C-alpha cells in the first residue's frame, strides 16, 4: 500500500523560478525514508510543499489514493499528514501540556484527552514535567515535544525537517531513538536529514535531492560509501541515475 506519491512535483516561491523541479517518488505505508542532499537543494521547500505550506506549480501529491496537491496545511493535518518544521515547531513560552492542548484542537473535543494521554505515555520525559515551559527543555526534549504535537492527530505520514540539527551527538542519538520508536508504531516516516550517518541507520531507503531534482532513490546501503554520496551531492552521478 502506498502512503505518499509525488508525481513530477514542481514547487517554490515564484512560478518562474521553481525550486523543486519535477520530483517523483512513492513511499509505502509504514516505510521510513530519508531525504538527503546539499544545502539549498530544495529539501525543506519540497517537504513544505507536501505539507501545504509552499505553493505547488505542477505535478501532484497523493496521500494513499487521494490527491491533495495544494491542500492547505490544516486540512492536510486532518487528513493524515504530520509535519515537524525545522524551527519554531513548539511554543517556547507555553508549558508542555499547553503545547499538546493546542495541537489537540485539530481533533474533535471528546478525543483530545485520550490523545494527549497517549502522547504522555509515549514520551515519559514529557510526562514527568507537564507544567515545565517548553522553552526550558533541552534540544532533544524540544524535538520530542514537536514530534508529540505532530503525532497527536495520529498522522499516517509524519514528515520531519532536520530534527537533529544543532544537537549534540548524545541528543542526536536520543532523537533517533525516538524516531525509531515512532517508526515501530507503523507510522510512515519522511525524514529530511543532514546527519547522513544517523539517517542511514534509521531508514531503509534514501532519496538524494540535488538542485531540485532526485539524484538517487534507492536502498541506503550504497550510501555508506562516503565517496558515492560525495559524488551524488556534487551532481556527478545525477545523469547516471537517469533523471
Ligand atoms: N521563503 C523563501 N523565499 C524564497 N526563496 C526561498 C525561501 N526559502 C528557501 N528559498 C530558496 O530555495 C532554495 C532551496 O532552499 P531549501 O528548500 O531551504 O533547501 P534545503 O532545505 O535543501 O537546504 C534556496 O535557493 C533558498 O534560497
Ligand atoms: Mg532545509
- The amount of helix comes to 25-40%
Order of helices and strands: EEEHEEHEHHHHEHEHEEH
| CA-based gyration radius | 18 Å
Beta fraction: 25-35%
Mean pLDDT: 91
Question: How many domains, in number, for the residues?
Answer: 1
Helix/strand structural class: alpha/beta
Q: What about the largest sheet?
A: 6 strands, mixed
What is the β-strand count?
Answer: 10
Widest sheet: strand order? 6-7-8-3-9-10
**First-residue to last-residue Cα separation:** 25 Å
Predict the CATH topology: Rossmann fold
CATH architecture: 3-Layer(aba) Sandwich
Q: Uncertain segments of ≥5 residues (pLDDT<50)? A: none
- CATH C-level class is Alpha Beta
CATH superfamily: P-loop containing nucleotide triphosphate hydrolases
Principal-axis shape equals globular
Tally the helices: 9
The ligands found in this model are: adenosine-5'-diphosphate, magnesium ion
Amino acid at each position: 500500500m502506498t502512503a505518499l506519491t509525488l508525481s513530477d512535483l514542481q514547487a517554490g516561491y515564484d512560478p518562474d523560478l521553481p525550486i523543486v523541479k519535477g520530483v517523483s517518488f512513492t513511499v509505502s505505508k509504514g516505510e521510513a525514508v530519508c531525504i538527503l542532499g546539499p544545502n539549498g537543494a530544495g529539501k525543506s521547500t519540497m517537504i513544505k510543499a507536501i505539507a501545504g505550506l509552499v505553493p505547488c506549480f505542477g505535478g501532484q501529491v497523493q496521500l494513499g489514493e487521494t490527491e491533495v496537491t495544494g491542500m492547505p496545511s490544516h486540512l492536510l493535518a486532518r487528513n493524515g499528514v504530520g509535519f515537524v518544521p525545522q524551527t519554531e515547531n513548539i511554543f517556547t513560552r507555553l508549558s508542555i501540556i499547553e503545547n499538546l492542548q493546542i495541537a489537540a484542537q485539530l481533533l474533535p473535543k471528546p478525543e483530545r484527552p485520550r490523545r494527549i494521554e497517549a502522547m504522555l505515555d509515549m514520551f515519559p520525559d514529557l510526562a514527568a514535567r507537564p507544567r515545565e515551559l517548553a522553552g526550558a527543555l533541552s534540544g532533544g526534549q524540544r524535538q520530542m515535544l514537536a514530534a508529540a504535537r505532530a503525532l497527536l492527530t495520529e498522522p499516517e505520514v509524519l514528515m520531519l525537517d532536520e530534527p537533529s540539527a544543532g544537537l549534540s551527538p548524545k541528543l542526536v542519538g536520543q532523537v533517533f531513538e525516538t524516531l525509531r520508536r515512532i517508526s515501530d508504531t507503523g507510522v510512515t516516516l519522511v525524514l529530511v536529514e543532514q546527519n547522513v550517518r544517523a539517517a542511514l541507520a534509521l531508514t531503509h531507503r534514501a532519496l538524494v535531492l540535488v538542485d531540485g531534482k532526485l539524484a538517487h532513490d534507492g536502498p541506503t546501503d550504497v550510501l555508506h560509501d562516503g565517496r558515492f554520496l560525495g559524488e551524488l551531492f556534487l551532481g556527478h552521478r545525477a545523469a547516471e541515475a537517469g533523471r
